[in-house]
Design goal:
Elements lengths: L26 E4 L3 E5 L3 E6 L4 E2 L2 E2 L7 H16 L7 E3 L13 H4 L3 E5 L2 E2 L2 E8 L2 H10 L1 E2 L2 E2 L9 E7 L2 E2 L7 E2 L2 H8 L1 H24 L2 E13 L2 E5 L8 E5 L15 H9 L13 H19 L2
Antiparallel strand pairs: 1-2, 2-3, 3-7, 4-5, 6-7, 8-15, 9-12, 9-13, 9-15, 10-11, 13-14, 15-16, 15-17
The protein binds adenosine-5'-triphosphate and magnesium ion (MG).
Length: about 300
């Protein structure tokens, strides 16, 4: 996998990219973070430096963030290729179609060439630790994703084993948690079983690896697609945007944990008294710089590079 010199400290972060525009290339979709270009049976996923918090995209990009997300995903796609086929082809602009050559500098590190798949519209969330909406549900009903949990769990405690908590993608942007039974009704029992098993295997693999590097992968979200009728892993994998990373040396169950990367940003946003509705407040340069450093640190710590 090609590693951009920014990630190894050999170059400063390139000019921040708030949005990409590749003239002449049809846009397949635009998400909160990525522009996706249509190349026929393949897609070009381009991660901008946009950052969202509380589901709102900030006005200011975080330099280098897209490079971290794309390269870290490539790292995990390569590491898991032995037991899980994926959409991943390459992040090296030299492997991209010749028509993209003029954009090589812009795309370097932040673009991933992938196989186009028919997206499965269920987010496959795996949780090793109880946090976020799972903690809220447990407090309310003693269950997580409708499953009865042991009594007396503390916030951020480790589950006896990882738990699969699916969600559907909703147009409002806030995902809706569903049960595995509801997922089976949407996708069929066979595909559901496969995705549950694959998701837990992927999480367990990544959790062990991150743990060995001093990071707790508290939970993460996978997306799958169908290619020739078979499930493959798509989207991004175990990045700070799709996962909760906690520094293992500061882990203290019984409350919320410091998150590895968006903590400064969230703390700052809360300190301004912002109501979490657009437009977001202007970010001071120190918050931008420290957030960028944290994203890069997440990459270097996990990959050991
Ligand atoms: N191989 C693939 N085939 C088809 N769609 C894909 C593939 N890989 C990723 N996607 C889709 O591309 C989009 C990536 O863009 P981005 O991460 O910015 O979206 P997002 O902000 O998470 O928003 P949303 O997923 O709600 O549209 C996602 O919608 C994802 O499901
Ligand atoms: Mg996404």
């Amino acid at each position: 996998m090609r590693v951009h010199p920014y990630l190894t400290g050999q170059a400063p972060a390139p000019t921040p990219v708030a949005q990409t525009l590749l003239p002449g290339l049809p846009l397949f979709a635009r998400g909160k973070v990525r522009e996706i270009y249509d190349l026929g049976d393949r897609l070009l996923l381009v991660a901008s430096d946009r950052i969202s918090a509380f589901d709102v995209v900030m006005n200011e990009p975080i330099p280098g963030k897209g490079i971290v997300l794309t390269t870290l995903s490539a790292y995990w796609f390569e590491a898991t290729a032995g037991f899980m086929p994926s959409h991943y082809i390459s992040i090296d602009p030299a492997d991209f179609p010749a028509g993209l050559r003029p954009y090589s500098d812009l795309l370097d590190g932040r673009a991933m060439l992938v196989k186009k798949a028919e997206r499965v519209d269920v987010e496959c969330v795996v949780r090793g630790y109880i946090s976020g909406s799972a903690w809220a549900e447990y407090i309310n009903s003693g269950t997580v994703a409708g499953m009865q949990m042991p009594e007396g769990l503390r916030e951020s405690a480790k589950f006896p084993q990882p738990i699969f908590t699916p969600a559907t993608k909703s147009s409002s942007g806030h995902d809706i948690n569903i049960s595995i039974e509801e997922m089976s009704k949407l996708l069929g029992a066979e595909l559901t079983q496969t995705l549950v098993r694959k998701s837990i295997d992927l999480y367990s693999f990544a959790e062990k690896r991150a743990r060995a590097r001093g990071i707790i992968l508290a939970d993460t979200k996978f997306e799958f697609g169908l290619l020739d009728g078979k499930p493959i892993l798509i989207d991004e994998v175990c990045t700070p945007d799709s996962s909760r990373f906690w520094p293992a040396d500061q882990y203290r169950p019984g409350g919320a944990q410091p998150s590895f990367d968006k903590q400064y940003l969230r703390d700052y946003l809360l300190s301004t008294g912002w109501n979490r509705e657009p437009p977001p407040p202007t970010l001071p340069s120190e918050i931008i710089t420290r957030t960028a450093e944290k994203y890069r640190e997440a990459f270097t710590r996990i990959t050991g590079s």
